[in-house]
Every structure is written in C-alpha cells, then in structure tokens.
Amino acid sequence: xxxxxxxxxxxxxxxxxxxxxxxxxxxxxxxxxxxxxxxxxxxxxxxxxxxxxxxxxxxxxxxxxxxxxxxxxxxxxxxxxxxxxxxxxxxxxxxxxxxxxxxxxxxxxxxxxxxxxxxxxxxxxxxxxxxxxxxxxxxxxxxxxxxxxxxxxxxxxxxxxxxxxxxxxxxxxxxxxxxxxxxxxxxxxxxxxxxxx
Length: 197
Ligand code: IMP
Description:
single chain; Maf protein; six-stranded mixed β-sheet; 5 helices; 23% strand; globular
C-alpha cells in the first residue's frame, strides 16, 4: 500500500519511513512524488492543520497520507506562539522568535508552557485518524543549550531536571517529547490495525 509523507523535512521523512515500512507501506515523500503543493494552514487547531495538509495531498494522489503540525503554547501569552510557532510575529530567525517569547514573559510569574504535536493519518478508505501528543513544561529565564531546534533552548520540560531541552541529549527528547507521544499513539493504532487484517 502506498503512503505519502506530507512534508519536505528530511528528519520527519526518515522518521515516518522507519515507522510505516515495517507495516508493509511503500513510503515516499511529497518531493519524491513531485507534488509541489504549499497548503495554507487556515485551521484553528493543530488537528485541523494536520488534517488540511494530509487531505490536500490525498485529494491529489488518492492514497494513504501522513501529515503533522506542532507548536509551542505559552499559558501567559494566551497560547502563543501556538499555530504560528514557525513564523511567530513574522520574525525571521529561531533566536528572534525565542527572544520574543522571553520578552513577552518579562515580569510574569506564570511561565507554564507546552509543546503539542498532532499527526493525521489518512487510510486507504479516506478516513482520517488523529494522534496528539503533549509535553508540559515551563519557559526558562534565558536561552540555554545548543541541541535540538526551535524553542528547545527556552523549554524546560516536566521531565527535564530543570534543564532546557536543548541542554539535554537528543535521545532524551526521543523518549518523552510531544512528538514521541503522538508517534506512540500512531504505532499502537497501526499494530491494532495490522492484527485485524
Ligand atoms: P512543525 O509543525 O513540526 O513544523 O513545527 C512548527 C514549529 O513549532 C517549529 O518550526 C518550531 O518552531 C516549533 N516546534 C515544534 N516542535 C518543536 C520541538 O520539538 N522543539 C522546539 N520547537 C518545536
């Protein structure tokens, strides 16, 4: 069965290939299929955006699709950067976006935050299945660490021993992050589905 990954991010493509191939899917990426589609993320939740991206590819290619959407929600910033995490306040660099979050929290006692990932899998019948993972934590006082990407240098997870995610080995994130939790939900579903077939 053919499955297309709705992403051009090489890390994600590798990860989803490793997940789906053992279940008998022939996996390729949007790029490998020459699908040049920039889907407008007009949803108001991560779930809606993941499904919008998956559905757009499915309508074009008529096969199984996997898409995801993630971001950081900061409680005292009314859930910002949220859906706009990758383009927060129109700032160009990840460092500028992190600094905007730190500035927004100046003088704030409440530094609670969470990362969220939603994965949408559209199966061969065209039905969508959503898997959401949440990783709770707080925003640090300043940037720390060089591992990972995005907001990792300012995110101290509830399992992080007071250290930012970017200060911990990447293997740590692979076990307990928002993405790891959503992926676990997806794998549990794929296992139960293959047992029924
Ligand atoms: P995407 O939807 O997975 O591309 O994520 C959108 C944006 O959310 C990224 O560009 C990052 O700014 C932020 N983000 C998502 N996941 C993470 C993470 O694990 N660490 C740090 N930032 C993240």
